[in-house]
């Protein structure tokens, strides 16, 4: 695997993790609309700028992923999506003050180890 390909994979996965963070923030800002039922909640989501930021980040990540898929075997590229679990967990802890259990950290580290093993097998 070339450094350029690895960086494309990392950028795509990172954009997806940032998208998750933006969507979570966006859904939090729409929480007040939940009292008005599903229609009110959907309206609140559609008015949240962070929801649109999240969707845009997903779109950019998907475009980068298309470049990755055009240059790497799927069986090599796809396991790196697991890095997104790590990045998303870290974003939740660092930016949303979410707590994590030892079991969650251990599971996330297992995912990371799997990504390393897959990358080294190429």
From TrEMBL:
Any one GO CC term of this protein is:
plasma membrane
Q: Where is the signal peptide?
A: 1-19
| Xref: InterPro entries | EmrE-like, Small_drug/metabolite_transptr
Localization per Swiss-Prot or TrEMBL: Cell membrane
Ranges annotated as spanning the membrane: 51-69, 76-96, 102-119
| Domain of life assignment | Bacteria
This protein's record includes keyword Membrane: yes
Q: What is its membrane topology?
A: Multi-pass membrane protein
Q: Tell me the GO molecular function terms.
A: transmembrane transporter activity
| Listed name of the protein | Multidrug transporter EmrE-like cation transporter
Q: Does the keyword Transferase apply?
A: no
Gene3D superfamilies given for it?
Answer: 1.10.3730.20
Keywords, ordered alphabetically: Cell membrane, Membrane, Signal, Transmembrane, Transmembrane helix
Q: SUPFAM superfamilies under this entry?
A: Multidrug resistance efflux transporter EmrE (SSF103481)
